[in-house]
Design brief:
This protein is α/β, with parallel strands linked by helices. The chain contains 17 helices and 24 strands. Helices cover 33% and strands 20% of the residues. A hairpin with a 2-residue loop joins strand 22 (554-557) and strand 23 (560-563). The longest helix has 20 residues, at 38-57. Mean pLDDT is 85; it is low at 620-624.
Length: 624
């Protein structure tokens, strides 16, 4: 729901009473659980009175106005949506409006989509015409009431403080009905545009349709996704992978024919094909015209999936979302919700900023189960690595049972990462105490290489040699060193220091720094080789050669592995007990040690652990 909804007359009344920004800020605080920024309040106070006056001068008193309309399944908000009757067709008509207070702007060199604004310190921002066009396209892709009325939606950016001269460079972006650009200097054209899209007739009914619409991917978007995901990737599924794939499709047919809701749980270790199943299902479901979404709890993983699946068609990216975006989803609004990396499910979608009015009282897994007629959970229980994460088969089973739902569970026995070496995965589990039995000697496996080295420099050199041969290679470490922000000159700080050797962690955020890729691309961009990855960027990914630094939080004492909570620098473990840290630390290293497909090279900071690893791997006949 928007922060404000009412007619143009109602909007103008709130402006004249001086209560509009107070009302908006109050609603924002209730829904977002935090205060509105001063800049946003200023924007409301400066722009909304101008828009109200323009609508009145255009003779559109009865048009319905939604201020700060939140696009479904995202945190993005459209400044204003106008709803009413089209003057020519008599059908519902909508205008999405992006309001800017800019007085001057210029395009970034060699780009029509990016612009420079002095107020943002010359930081590039998206062209407002491209911004509003994206909002229109997204709404058409997900608001089912708009699915067959694509000509009913128009978009415009209104720079009411700007002159034509001040933003002349922005005219380089070709205009469409969804990316029109108006300034204070073209106010007459702006009013004509509004009159061309909206009649002076009540718009409440049209707004009711928009705000009350079912939310699901449109058939057109699914058709595009079928081409991008299913037809382009051509995945081959084997054995249990095929069973899992067929079981989901069977559950979909059962839900359609007999109205039976089924929860599907697919459990598998690293590289067992969980994400391949997820993408194969998405492509097939889209081909069949069945509404489905993909969700994870990992920004890095979701951004990479968007990059891979939406490489040629940007709109496909919107089909990849996050677990916490279903906190208020319509029950069974989707046919299928594919929860990939479901071990990342948290106890609740709410956080410390969530107000009581937003809290559902349900766990996150209950919200995800409720959101679709066939919720699918793909998980690896040994990858629960952070406090608050609890995704496991029993947790899903318990929530489904309480809801009276049938659960179908498939275990993936195949091992596709780690060279298909089940022996290596079992060796890792026993080393870390995650399966029964003492640590065992590594006797080698022709399908997978394992080596222990005596210094991080030796580890990096070995990885670099593989990289020069054309293999993908990355090094990771336990979170035992500080993680600094970039230096003022834009360089990364060499935080991971072991003796004379030092390297930086991967970039923290989603902007490339000094030639290093954004965090979500560290595992897949070749430029990620020079940084040390951690669990937050490595989980969910794979590369040919895997280098792992076992930090000082992992020690060898009295013939077994122990953990040391005092050595961690991970803020997620502040205030946690040693026992809580112990299990998560072992799972962290299990994830880090199983990212490689061809081989793993290990260095241990603890001398005793390094000696133990040499002893355990001494007899190896692996192909290092």
């Amino acid at each position: 729901m928007p922060l404000f909804r009412g007619s143009v007359v109602g909007l103008q009344s709130a402006v004249l009473e001086g209560t509009l920004s107070v009302r908006l800020a109050g609603e924002f605080a209730i829904r977002q659980g935090r205060r509105t920024s001063p800049s946003e309040i200023r924007a409301w106070e400066k722009s909304l009175p101008v828009l109200a006056r323009d609508l009145l001068d255009a003779g559109l008193d009865q048009v319905e106005v939604a201020v700060e309309y939140q696009l479904p399944l995202t945190s993005k908000r459209v400044d204003v949506v106008l709803a009413g009757v089209h003057p020519r067709t008599g059908s519902s008509s909508y205008v999405f409006v992006e309001l800017k207070q800019w007085t001057q702007a210029e395009p970034v060199e060699d780009s029509d989509d990016l612009v420079h604004i002095d107020a943002y310190g010359r930081r590039p921002v998206l062209h407002p015409g491209a911004q509003v066009a994206g909002y229109c396209a997204y709404a058409l892709n997900f608001v089912r009431a708009l699915e067959h009325t694509t000509d009913a939606v128009a978009g415009a950016a209104y720079l009411h403080n700007a002159t034509e001269m001040g933003v002349a460079g922005l005219r380089g972006l070709p205009e469409t009905e969804r990316s029109r650009l108006f300034t204070g200097g073209t106010r007459g054209a702006w009013l004509d545009f509004l009159r061309s899209r909206l009649a002076d007739a009540p718009g409440a009914e049209a707004m009711d349709v928009l705000l009350g619409s079912a939310i699901a991917p449109s058939r057109q978007l699914m058709a595009v996704a079928a081409d991008e995901v299913r037809d382009r990737e051509q995945f081959v599924l084997l054995d249990e992978q095929r069973v899992a794939y067929a079981s989901v499709l069977q559950a979909v047919e059962r839900a359609k024919c007999s109205d039976r809701k089924t929860v599907v749980v697919v459990r598998g270790g690293p590289g067992s094909g969980k994400s391949v199943i997820a993408l194969s299902l998405l492509g097939e479901l889209y081909r069949r015209g069945i509404p489905a979404l993909h969700a994870t709890g990992s920004k890095s993983f979701t951004e990479t999936m968007r990059r891979v699946a939406g490489h040629r068609k940007g709109e496909v990216k919107s089909l990849f979302t996050y677990f916490n975006q279903f906190i208020s989803a319509e029950p069974n609004g989707l046919e299928v919700l594919i929860c990939d990396e479901a071990h990342r499910i948290r106890e609740t979608s709410a956080n410390r900023f969530t107000r009581a009015a937003q809290r559902t009282g349900r766990s996150q897994v209950e919200e995800l189960i409720a959101a679709a007629r066939v919720p699918v959970f793909l998980l690896d229980e040994h990858q629960v690595v952070r406090p608050g994460e609890l995704g496991s088969g029993p947790v899903v089973q318990d929530a489904a049972t309480r809801a009276g739902l049938e659960v179908v569970q498939i275990d993936l026995d195949g091992q596709f990462r780690c060279g298909g070496s089940r022996a290596y995965e079992e060796w890792v589990l026993r080393l870390l105490g995650l399966s029964a039995g003492e640590p065992t000697r590594w006797d080698g496996d022709e399908r997978f290489a394992l080596q222990v080295v005596d210094s991080p420099g030796e580890l990096e050199a070995a990885l670099e040699s593989r990289s020069l041969q054309g293999f993908g290679a990355r090094m990771t470490a336990g979170f035992c060193w500080p993680w600094s922000d970039p230096r003022p000159d834009g360089g990364l700080v060499d935080d991971v220091q072991i003796g004379a050797w030092s390297r930086p962690w991967n970039v923290k955020g989603e902007r490339a720094v000094g030639g290093a890729p954004a965090a979500s691309l560290w595992a897949t961009d070749p430029a990620g080789f020079g940084q040390v990855g951690c669990i937050y960027t490595a989980q969910g990914f794979e590369y040919d050669w895997n280098g792992v630094i076992l930090g000082p939080d992992l020690l060898w004492r009295d013939g077994r592995l122990v953990t040391d909570r005092t050595a961690t620098r991970d803020p997620a473990f502040r205030g946690k007990t040693a026992a809580e840290f112990d299990l998560h630390a072992r799972n962290v290293y299990k994830v880090l040690l199983t990212r490689g497909m061809a081989g793993t090279i290990v260095y241990a900071a603890d001398p005793a652990l390094r000696e133990a690893l040499h002893s355990l791997i001494a007899a190896a006949r692996s192909r290092v």
